[in-house]
Amino acid sequence: MPRHRTRKRPMSEINVVPYIDVMLVLLVIFMVTAPLLAQGVKVELPQVASEPLRGSTEEPLIVSVDAAGRAYLNYGEEANAPLEREDLLTRVSALLRHRPGIEVLVKGDKSVSYGDVIRVMALLQRAGAPSIGLITLPPDPTSGE
Fold this sequence. Notes:
This protein is of the alpha/beta class. The protein is built from three helices and four strands.
């Protein structure tokens, strides 16, 4: 009696379990590393009612002034290092020559003196900024201010 060998048909289903495992591992990695990517200067912004700025496709030039009156620039390899006033003037003027239409914003700590913020704004004007905006937070509705 001859035996007929039956061929097994190939499976048309894909085993997705390994892909789900890889996806979950990547999800955990991104959840752990995302908070570490947020860098910046510790600045407590004042809360005031103001109109939001128009959205721009280009990242603005932001000069931060911390509570001690030190200035920081959000461009360059040392964005978290304080800059001397002359270094800030040189870097901002070079950036404005390279990218003339860039938006210039000042982010001043709420406890810094008004004079320190004005000095930084005057420095930015000397560097060639045509207009300078101030960054604030919207008021907290629970504070009653």
